[in-house]
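Sanity check

After download, print the first record. It should look like this:
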Amino acid sequence: MSKFIQNVLLSFVMAASVAGWYQQAGFRVMEVEFLKVPIFLIAIFILSLFIAEDVRNSFKKVLWFEKRSDKRPIWQVGIGMIFFFAQIGFVEIFARGLMNYSLEGMPLYIIFSFMNAFLVTVIYEEIFYVEEKAAVEQFKFKKLK
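Expected structure tokens:
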């Protein structure tokens, strides 16, 4: 279930990025919508579902995920990145009006996306992260006399 959620979110990130690039170009194909969702976004989303697993695996190889003794920190960073960019993509496509607000020069939607990504990562980790028993190191304590 966790991999499915990650793949769907990663597909949305890729689709929103591509659709966001073309949305401001003024192409007529970007104006075609179904229930307020651009058809171009839906098409790119479906195409990116096929490559999402390969993209995830390539990031794992680049970050040497399998070679690490403690996989948890890099897993948290990866999940947080997916949640962060999914929220950024949502604002780019569906709520462009929120991109105008800023907090002393920093766009406010980026601040909220970062905070939400942190919180959602913690919640997601509590639900889906399975810690391997072999990865936990055993410590022996001295007996005090």
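If your output differs, re-run the checksum step. Summary of this record's structure: The beta strands are 33-34, 37-38, 102-103, 106-107.
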